[in-house]
Specification:
The chain has 197 residues and is an all-alpha fold. The protein is built from eight helices and no strands. Helix content is 68%, strand content 0%. The radius of gyration is 22 Å and the shape is elongated.
Length: 197
Amino acid sequence: MSDLKQLADESLVKGYISGNSRCIDVLIDRHKNKIFTYILVSVKNRELAEDIFQDTIVKVIHSLKAGRYSENGKFSSWVMRIGHNLIIDHYRKEKHLSTVSNDNFDFDLFNHPKYSAKSVEDRLVYDQILKDVADLVTLLPESQKKVVELRHYKGLSFKDIAEELGVSINTALGRMRYAIINLRKIAAEKNISLSIS
C-alpha cells in the first residue's frame, strides 16, 4: 500500500480500472478531506454531508467501473464535480418533497428572515442552471446562438441586435424565439432541469 501512495492520481485510477481495488482506497484517502469539507461547507449539516460524501464515493466507483472517467490528471476536480452535482440533486429533490413543521422550534419558523432571502441551496441550484444554459447555448445554430449572446450576455436591445447583425428586428426576434424553443428541446433530450422549484 505504501508503494501505491507514491503514485499519481492518474496511475491509481488506471490501477483501479485494471483490477487493483487498493488503488481506490489510496485515492479516497488522499482526497477525502477536501471533498468532505467542500460538501460540508455547501450543505452546513454534518449528517447530510456524510450521506452526500458516501453517495459521491459510490458514484465515483460506479463511474470508474463503467469507464466514464475521462478527466486525465484531474481526478479530484472530477470527484468534486460529482459531489457538487449530488448536492444540487439533493436540494432539487428536497424542494419537491419536503414539508416544514413549526412544532420543533421555539420561534415562528415561517416568519424567520432565512426564508425571505435566497438560501445557499437556491444559489447553488441557480448557478448550476446558469451553467447548464450556457452549455446548451453552445449547441444552438450559429445565428440563434449569436442573438442569445447579444441579448442575454451583452444586454443589447433587439433593435441594436438587428443593427449589429444586419437583419430586421423581426428576424432577430424570430431567431430568439427559435433559440428558446431549441434550448427547451435540447434540455428535454438531455434530461436537464432548468427550473429552480
